TrEMBL record:
Gene3D superfamilies: 2-enoyl-CoA Hydratase, Chain A, domain 1, Lyase 2-enoyl-coa Hydratase, Chain A, domain 2. GO terms for biological process: fatty acid metabolic process. One of its GO terms (molecular function) is hydro-lyase activity. SUPFAM superfamilies: ClpP/crotonase (SSF52096). This is Enoyl-CoA hydratase domain-containing protein 3, mitochondrial. It comes from the Bacteria. May play a role in fatty acid biosynthesis and insulin sensitivity.
Length: 276
């Protein structure tokens, strides 16, 4: 499939550059944050990401989504200047703050519930809601110079919403360490904590992410949908209930055409042809 590239308008309506660019090739949709220098998650960028993911969820040609960024900062999180400017509102900004944090939560939930795997490609700093975005993705691959933090405690604004994703990706005590100290951790520590899957040299980042995406995109899209939903749901259940639930999922999965095709292809030593 030929690569399809398009641009999203920024808040001023400008096409050039755009806050978010997209390209689709061989089933892999790349969404690139393009809001330099810090790729802050402004209202406009949050809305653009939500729109793209909503479309991707229903688009058969999209098998895997990659979220990347331009520049030296993956994302510095919420736009503090945008938020601070609304303190002059009649409600001291409460309505705008609620809208911002609700949109961010909707984005993270959209990633979690998207019926397709989402990979974060990180090169640079991922802080606050930017770290939350990384933690929300199904997989995360970063360069060896990438760094991560949840520094809200340093400015009197605890990273409570980023905490939801970070505490579900990292181990409990490591997540609390990040949240309570606000200190920046390097890529190696982030891998030890459980925030990222792989660390690669900068020059190989796109290549490694593309390889992961291609491998995943080659699988049955229906099976990926079933598996991602079951993975997230069983984590919320007690172990006995989790086994009861996943046993039912296995039966339902076994009855699908793709399972029949996949098992038949394996036994017949041939490549499967997925129906989806």
């Amino acid at each position: 499939m030929a690569e399809i590239v398009s641009f999203r308008k920024d808040a001023a309506g400008a096409e050039e550059g755009g806050l978010l660019t997209r390209s689709l090739r061989d089933g892999v949709l790349r969404l690139v944050l393009n809001n330099p220098p810090a790729n802050v998650l402004s209202i406009a960028l949050l809305e653009a990401l939500l729109e793209e993911l909503e479309t991707a969820g229903a688009e058969p040609d999209v098998r895997v989504v990659v979220i990347a960024s331009t520049g030296n900062v993956f994302s510095a999180g919420h736009d503090l200047k945008e938020l601070t400017a609304r303190r002059a509102d009649e409600d001291q900004g409460a309505g705008f703050f609620e809208k911002t944090f609700r949109l961010a939560a909707d984005l993270m939930l959209k990633i979690t519930h998207l019926p397709k795997p989402v990979i974060a490609e990180i090169d640079g700093l991922a802080t606050a809601a930017g770290c939350q975005l990384v933690a929300s993705c199904d997989l995360a691959i970063c360069t060896d110079s990438s760094t991560f933090c949840t520094p809200g405690v340093n400015i009197g604004l605890f990273c409570s919403t980023p905490m939801v994703a970070v505490s579900r990706a990292a181990h409990r005590k490591q997540a609390m360490e990040m949240l309570l100290t606000g200190e920046t951790i390097d890529a190696s520590t982030a891998k030890d904590f459980g925030l990222v899957n792989r660390i690669v040299p900068k020059q190989y980042l796109a290549q490694v992410v593309s390889k992961y995406a291609a491998v995943i995109a080659s699988k049955s899209p229906l099976t990926l949908k079933i598996g991602k939903e079951a993975f997230n749901r069983q984590l919320e259940l007690p172990v006995e209930a989790a086994y009861d639930y996943t046993a039912r999922v296995m039966v339902e999965n076994m009855l699908t055409e793709d399972a029949q095709e996949g098992i038949g292809a394996f036994l017949g030593k041939r490549k499967p042809e997925w129906k989806g």
